[in-house]
TrEMBL record:
Domain of life from the UniProt record: Bacteria
Keywords: DNA-binding, Transcription, Transcription regulation
Organism, as annotated: Schumannella soli
Presence of keyword Membrane: no
PROSITE patterns registered for this protein in UniProt: ICLR_ED
Molecular function as annotated in GO: DNA binding; DNA-binding transcription factor activity
Protein name in UniProt: IclR family transcriptional regulator
A biological-process GO annotation: negative regulation of DNA-templated transcription
SUPFAM superfamilies, per the entry: GAF domain-like, Winged helix' DNA-binding domain
Length: 251
């Protein structure tokens, strides 16, 4: 079904059409190309270009040559947050589960909560709170804390200030220490933070300029020795890297 053409916005449509001419293979646009592609007058072309520059969407690299501005990065990052990649994650989770013999999860942040978007459950029964669609706080669990660690300092402080019930001062300090280690190491482990007796580890999944989510494995703590935890951690990092490469290849 064709989308009905919106009336009364011809000027806005033309400016957006000019903006959409930029692409990975066409990172620059000249005023002559604008004139040729859109069959408009020189004054009109400069008027549309001026509007895009006013909104800081493009900038002039040299005389008559225009490129996208860094402001576009914010739009790209906003677009990334709407893509959940659960379909791409599922076969990677399945392979991870088969490799380590434990349940594997893919988590994303939704507003100020962590949500499980995909899961590959092991043959061993395990009861966990992170289930597809369930919103969970960011302060507990390996995967959730990776998502919180990505917050800027001011945003993280506001989030922690809003928590109800509030974290005791000592718990907040421990959490901040954990988050600093996670930022330094790019990896997290937890035990009994969300579900009693459950150990978890997680690694971040990045796209350029954005944290997309985390790959995590959960298991009963008694079933995973120190050697097994190291093995699972390595596998989780590899799976996160595989998902990053898959997403980059689809871009």
């Amino acid at each position: 079904m064709a989308i009905q053409r919106t009336k009364g916005v011809d000027s806005a449509r033309r400016a957006l059409q000019i903006l959409l001419q930029f692409s990975e293979s066409k990172p620059e646009l000249t005023i002559d190309e604008v004139l040729e592609l859109h069959e408009i007058s020189v004054p009109s072309a400069y008027r549309y270009i001026s509007l895009l520059r006013e909104l800081q969407l493009i900038e002039e690299r040299s005389k008559g040559v225009f490129v996208l501005s860094p402001q576009i990065i914010k739009l790209a990052q906003a677009a990334e947050t709407t893509l959940d990649y659960r379909v791409e994650a599922q076969p990677i989770l399945d392979a991870l589960r088969d490799r380590v013999g434990e349940t594997a999860l893919y988590l994303r942040r939704v507003n100020d909560a962590a949500v499980c978007l995909a899961i590959a459950e092991s043959d061993h029964a395990i009861s966990i709170s992170f289930q597809p669609g369930h919103l969970m706080p960011l302060v507990a669990g390996a995967g959730a804390k990776i998502l919180l660690a990505a917050y800027a300092d001011a945003k993280r402080a506001r989030y922690l200030d809003r928590l109800q019930p509030p974290l005791p001062a000592a718990a907040r300090e421990r959490l901040l220490g954990d988050l600093q280690r996670i930022r330094n190491e790019g990896y997290a482990e937890s035990e009994g933070e969300v579900d009693e007796g459950v150990w978890a580890c997680a690694a971040p999944v990045h796209a350029p300029g954005a944290l997309l989510g985390t790959i995590s494995v959960v298991a009963p703590a008694y079933r995973v020795s120190a050697e097994k935890r190291a093995e699972i951690g390595s596998a989780v990092r590899a799976a996160a890297h595989d998902l990053e490469e898959l997403i980059a290849g689809d871009s």
